[in-house]
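ok so i was messing around last nite and threw this chain in just to see what happens. nothing serious, just curious
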Amino acid sequence: MATTFTRRAFIYQAGFASLAVPLLATVGCRNQQFLSPLRVSATTIQPNGSGLNDESDIDFTLTQRAEVSATLLGPDGKQYVIRAPQMRAPDDYQIRFTGVVPVEGKDWLRVVPDGTYNLKITAKSETGQQIVRQTPIIVKNADTTAPEITDVFVQYTTFSPNGDGFEDTTKVSYKLSKKATVRVYATDSTGGFYLISPPQKIDASAQAFEWDGTAGGGKVLPDGKYSVHIEATDDAGNFTDYVTSITIEGGGIPRAEIRDVRFSPIAVPINGILNVTVVVRNTGTVPIKTLGPVSGTKYTTEQSYATFTDKSGVPIYYERAGVWRVAVGWQNEPQPYPLRWGFWTDGMNADGTFTRALQPNEEVTVTGQIVLGQNMKILNAQRFFAALEQGGAGFPTGQVGQTNVTISY
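result:
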């Protein structure tokens, strides 16, 4: 579910205060002066990020229901809409003016330049009577240099966060021109909000972040096109954002479990063969890939999956992110789970991966043979067990199907 923390709320925190901030409730008579004179906390502000003298609170009282708006008139004659007309109930209200105005046609906010401005409150009653109150506000030492987000580069504009080790994440790099508080999030076509990186103060520098397609709780978002927003707000209140499009395709959670394990026979002589049969089920939401050796491969207990090499002696079957295998070990194993098998008996590519994957809800039976070598003379019995290897993540099932095998010489 999308979080309720909205982008507009973040903008307000940057200094664009709401007009309708109720103070003490007021009951007034319905007279011609239904909008009180303005009460101004400061006639001069310095919006430069210092935290000193950087705002003015403009209070007023509305004694009857009216449509209220707020505008700012600059020394150059330019007018800014601080608050669009909206019907208000009788009450006390406050505007917190921090020298910040919206940029027409964008979500950006900018600190106005130094000068004398006129802040105007207009109230229009339901009968059509209009009252205008205004106050001058001087802006000094304003920081009008806004943070810029440039050189944005997306590694994969379409990626598949499904745990297969191929384009599971995408990286986004950019440059920040000025120290600012930066937040990153994604939105979908329905307005859903998904936080990627919470607000954090960052110096002017080259930046990058990696997105794995999740937002809160580690759940991969549904397939579709997302708008990824990078927002930067400096201490003075200048706000800039950059929006880029990224598509999730084939996303989901890889998950599998072992349904059954059988070791047989349970009494084996040295140089004898122990058979293993493991039933695997894909319990996730995406197909899972697998890696060799093929199901049915015969090992000795003195070998491992890394024993199989190409003509130059390079191991063919190594641990690889995003692929799954059945793994078998025993209590005195020379390394964790030395014997491993892929899910299939054929259809293998030259790099040891298979041409097909285990589909969601599909089961496969994996078999193997283990020749008990001379290294098994340590004990009269050995405890064998199986697991699933998830490349890059470990062995999520733990040791299952534990079986004591008697060894005779």
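not much to say yet. Confidence is low (pLDDT under 50) at residues 1-30.
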